[in-house]
Amino acid sequence: MVWSNESVRELALQHFVLAADNTYLLRSGEGPEGELFLNVVRQGHYGDSEERIAATWQGVYAFTPDGDLLASTSVYTAEAVEATLTDAVAAWNERSAADETIATAEASTQRDQRAHAGTRWQNFYPEDGLVLHSWARYLPHETESAPGQEPLDPERRSMDYAWFTADEMSGLVPARLEEGATREVDPAVVERLARFHVVDSVPCLPQCFDAEDVETAEMTARIERVDGARIHVRMEGRTRAASTSRMERAATWMRVEGPGPFVSEHGVTGRILGRAVYDTASERFVAFDMLAVGETWRAPWRAADAAPSPENRQVIPLGIGFSLAADTPSARIPPGFVELYGWDRPNTVRRTQRESVRRRTDTEPVD
């Protein structure tokens, strides 16, 4: 563990103001935070080369308030982070006449942050809605890595959050509050699960789906019993989505060579089963546990005019768990694809799914 390491903690707490944020949302460059983020990372370990445009830009960055990089690393070990922080302290100590620059930058940043604060996705946390914490992992299997694919790590896990408004949440409970009552869950809610949450996020770089990629998205809610104000609900459903990604140029992480364009197929199926308890007095869920179990498949990147190789297609059993999130600061981290939910957010330009994750279909032109 990095931040529980005594040396790392001592360096970090003594010399730095610590912050953690979602790089996926900052990559848009929107507002002063996004502009600062892009300026810093382009000085760092990923650089500003075209080859790394599709990188996540995640890592540990130490920089001045005016955006000058001191040190950075993408190697997430205690030793690497300690070395990075040590280098950053040394670089800071070597700076000359920094005080005036820092004071000016801090005042400007504070003004910009106050003006931009209302558009951060954290401020759209559904206080009266439903927030779920999710985990994804590959289930036990004997599948080996296919040629051109990333090695499978049976210990790898990923996590995310799923947000639902109060109206969307109420659609998970049958209108008639009596045992045996059922309802079909709003297709828009189930489609959101299929596009953004029942996805293969285990390899670290998840790909979501466009609406037209969703082949199946259905869920039924049934009341199993009523205990006073407590409504016990059982949920069952299915999702299936499949897509073809397209990149005009090869990047290192694609493990492919040539002039391009390149394509790759992937998809996810899930059988959903869950139980929840809804409290009519507080109009909130007080318990929520749901599983999506199915398969994920993906093919290695290949030239767009080359035929797919069925033997290289990986099919891996996938499990995703959802539970009621605690009301803690960490639970207010926005879902990875929140900007694609379709929720209105003032003073911003919401990108499309393809613009956000740089996915292209075979027929879609690339700017």
Write structural notes for this entry:
- The chain has eight helices and eleven strands.
- It is of the alpha+beta class.
- Strand 6 (214-227) and strand 7 form a beta hairpin.
- Helix 1 packs parallel to helix 4 (78-94).
- The chain is globular and about 70 Å long.
Note the run of SSEs as H and E. HHHEEHHEEHEHEEEEEEH
Q: How would a textbook summarize the main sheet? A: 9 strands, antiparallel
Structural class: alpha+beta
Proportion of β residues? 25-35%
Short description:
This protein has 8 helices and 11 strands. It has helices at residues 6-15, 23-26, 31-41, 78-94, 98-116, 166-170, 187-197, 353-357, and strands at 60-63, 69-73, 130-138, 157-164, 182-184, 214-227, 230-247, 262-279, 284-298, 302-303, 314-324.
How is this fold's topology laid out?
Layout: H1 6-15, H2 23-26, H3 31-41, E1 60-63, E2 69-73, H4 78-94, H5 98-116, E3 130-138, E4 157-164, H6 166-170, E5 182-184, H7 187-197, E6 214-227, E7 230-247, E8 262-279, E9 284-298, E10 302-303, E11 314-324, H8 353-357
Antiparallel strand pairs: 1-2, 3-4, 3-11, 5-6, 6-7, 7-8, 8-9, 8-10, 9-11
